[in-house]
């Protein structure tokens, strides 16, 4: 069961903005829509004018007729009321139509900026923060902001009505109007009292929704693991706890928002009662006429409605400001990976130099310490070592996924920090340990490496791997659907699609975190053939888990705790009988054809009680220390 307040704390990148700063940022999104804003403002003013003038027109017309005026005024009065109502409806339709279009455009722009900001972040950002909560900011918070902005147009209309009615009330009885203005600040103060509370509960509601999105995302993406371990009920219970937490917080938020209007209406009612009392006494004393007093009382109700709405809106507006604050905080996050220049690299040779580089994920997690390595153009190196040796960190630094803390990395003699990242990464081909495929066809996933690639080019590249025999295992060839994350394909097929995607890209630097999943010998040969095609025209850095890949590399780099302890080709390292020989004996020896042949012979002869060499004795004989 989730903790009661889990997930409601602010993210480390959250920041506090003043209302002025938020409003200025919001107005920035409305500037491209000045024409619509002007039209909406005119419609609002005309609607407010009609709403304030209509009671006066009716009151004066009735007064004239009561004093013996012509009955011909009745049809005219009916016509005025009718056309005023029709005009008000038309103006309101135009206002709402343009407002809906404008708000949709503003939300679209905000989401685009928020998504672009999220896409710019380096991988360390996603290591620390939940993607589900980030999605919530881009979707839910922008939507809530839009809803509050729609509400604001109604409030602006009511504000215009209130200003016009103030003038009207002064015309009826200026002394009572001053009394009204004296009581209005009490309503405003009460509304401001809800301001901080409304903003706080709205922030908690947004964070709770982000926690719900995070829980759903984790449950859906991890459903296979949950089913394997029969934990469907556990993830449901986890979601139930998070969902109930969000329910409780949103009920509290709704209670706060729902109590704003009743509280303000009570204050407005008290103000009206005071006016009725003093106005009635003034009318009895002859200070004002009874008709004027009645018109004043009838008009004051129309005045209090926009005043209370405007005051209540300020608290509700805090919900929109809170939502926009979360969105702007995401936009304003500075990436850890920073570039010092904007060099556009063209046709890289692929020379890579690590010059006394130090790198850590956190203060307590030092990975590389004073690390130096030179990779020649076109050279292929294999990185081997135990888990935590720093293999993945090296390739992540080359791809600029993380920022290193000391030293220098150069590519073709240029500081890596000076390259334009988009152009640089276009010349890097990366295949991760578990290849990620997008929902779509095999051809669409291959084209992801080079969007301009034609169907003929994709077909040609796919046929170069094993003469295209791997395509025959797919139900519809290149048009086969891969499913979500490539779930419809085997691991070997995913690897071949990912490698073909890189082959189409023709990268100058190739990075491979070779998968550990077992594949059949035929698929392995196809994978190795694809690797040979890519490595023939690029500098290759490979985290190797297969003996065939290790032996094919020009140089093997042996890592231990972020340092190079051995390097050379396979035979030379085996003769040293050092750390690589131990790794070979642990991870690679069983992949050797000679070893497998010896195991088969040993098992056959063991059944006939014939003395023979055991696999371990064979290994010691092949590589004596």
Describe, in plain words, how this protein is organized in 3D.
With 625 residues, this protein is of the alpha/beta class. It folds into 3 domains: 19-194 and 259-331, ABC transporter type 1, transmembrane domain (ABC transporter transmembrane region fold), CATH 1.20.1560; 379-390 and 419-576, Rossmann fold (3-Layer(aba) Sandwich); 593-622, no CATH class. The chain is 63% helix and 10% strand. The protein contains 22 helices and 10 strands. The strands form 2 sheets. It has a 6-stranded mixed beta sheet with strand order 6-7-8-3-9-10, with helices on both faces. A 4-stranded antiparallel beta sheet has the order 2-1-4-5, covered by helices on one side. A hairpin with a 2-residue loop joins strand 9 (555-560) and strand 10 (563-568). The two termini are 56 Å apart.
Shape: elongated
Biggest sheet layout: 6 strands, mixed
If you compute it from the alpha carbons, what radius of gyration comes out, rounded to the nearest whole angstrom? 37 Å
The overall pLDDT, averaged over residues, is: 77
Calculate the terminal CA-CA distance, rounded to whole Å: 56 Å
SS-based structural class?
alpha/beta
Helix content estimate:
55-70%
Query: If helices are DSSP runs of H or I spanning 4 or more residues, what is the number of helices?
Result: 22
User: Strand percentage, roughly?
Assistant: 5-15%
- Per the CATH scheme, the topology name of the largest domain is ABC transporter transmembrane region fold
């Amino acid at each position: 069961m989730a903790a009661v307040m889990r997930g409601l704390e602010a993210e480390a990148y959250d920041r506090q903005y003043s209302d002025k700063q938020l409003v200025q940022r919001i107005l920035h999104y409305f500037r491209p829509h000045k024409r619509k804003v002007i039209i909406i403002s005119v419609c609002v003013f005309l609607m407010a004018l009609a709403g304030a003038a209509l009671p006066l027109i009716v009151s004066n017309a009735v007064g004239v007729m009561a004093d013996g005026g012509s009955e011909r005024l009745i049809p005219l009065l009916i016509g005025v009321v009718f056309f005023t109502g029709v005009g008000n409806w038309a103006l309101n339709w135009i206002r709402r139509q343009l407002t809906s279009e404008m708000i949709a455009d503003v939300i679209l722009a905000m989401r685009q900026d928020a998504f672009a900001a999220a896409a710019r972040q380096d991988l360390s950002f996603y290591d620390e923060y939940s993607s589900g909560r980030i999605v919530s900011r881009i979707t839910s918070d922008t939507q809530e902001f839009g809803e509050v902005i729609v509400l604001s147009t109604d409030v602006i209309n009511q504000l215009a009505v209130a200003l016009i009615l103030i003038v009207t009330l002064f015309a009826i009885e200026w002394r009572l109007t001053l009394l009204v203005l004296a009581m209005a600040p009490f309503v405003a103060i009460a509304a401001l009292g809800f301001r901080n509370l409304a903003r706080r509960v709205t922030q908690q509601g947004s964070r709770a929704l982000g926690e719900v999105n995070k829980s759903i995302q984790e449950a859906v993406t991890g459903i296979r693991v949950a089913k394997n371990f029969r934990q469907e009920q556990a993830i449901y219970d986890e979601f139930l706890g998070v969902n109930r937490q969000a329910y409780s917080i949103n009920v509290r938020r709704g209670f706060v928002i729902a109590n704003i209007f009743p509280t303000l209406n009570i204050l407005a009612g008290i103000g009206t009662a005071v006016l009725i009392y003093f106005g009635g006494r003034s009318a009895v004393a002859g200070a004002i006429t009874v008709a004027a007093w009645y018109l004043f009382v009838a008009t004051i109700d129309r005045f209090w409605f926009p005043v209370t709405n405007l005051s209540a809106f300020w608290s509700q507006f805090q919900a929109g400001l809170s939502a926009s604050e979360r969105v702007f905080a995401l936009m304003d996050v500075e990436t850890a990976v920073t570039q010092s220049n904007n060099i556009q690299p063209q046709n890289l040779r692929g020379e890579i130099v690590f010059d006394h580089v130090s790198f850590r994920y956190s203060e307590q997690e030092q990975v590389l310490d004073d690390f130096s390595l030179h990779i020649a153009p076109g050279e292929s190196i294999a990185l081997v070592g135990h888990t935590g040796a720093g293999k993945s960190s090296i390739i992540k630094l080359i791809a600029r996924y993380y920022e290193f803390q000391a030293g220098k990395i150069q590519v073709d003699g240029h500081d890596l920090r000076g390259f334009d990242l988009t152009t640089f990464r276009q010349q890097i081909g990366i295949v991760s340990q578990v290849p990620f495929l997008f929902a779509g066809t095999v051809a669409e996933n291959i084209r992801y490496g080079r969007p301009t690639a034609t169907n003929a080019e994709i077909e040609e590249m796919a046929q170069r791997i094993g003469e295209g025999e791997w395509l025959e295992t797919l139900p519809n060839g290149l048009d086969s659907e891969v499913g979500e994350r490539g779930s419809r394909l085997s691991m070997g097929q995913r690897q071949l699609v990912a490698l073909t995607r890189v082959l189409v890209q023709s990268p100058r630097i190739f990075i491979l975190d070779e998968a550990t999943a077992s594949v059949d010998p035929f698929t392995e040969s196809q994978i190795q053939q694809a690797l040979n095609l890519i490595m023939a025209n690029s500098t290759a850095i490979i985290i190797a888990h297969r003996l065939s890949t290790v032996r094919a590399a020009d140089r093997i780099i042996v890592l231990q705790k972020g340092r190079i302890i051995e390097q050379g080709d396979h035979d030379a390292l085996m003769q040293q009988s050092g750390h690589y020989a131990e790794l070979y004996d642990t991870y690679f020896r069983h992949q050797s054809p000679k070893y497998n042949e010896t195991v088969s012979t040993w098992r056959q002869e063991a059944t006939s009680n014939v003395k023979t060499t055991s696999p371990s004795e064979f290994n010691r004989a092949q590589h004596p220390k």
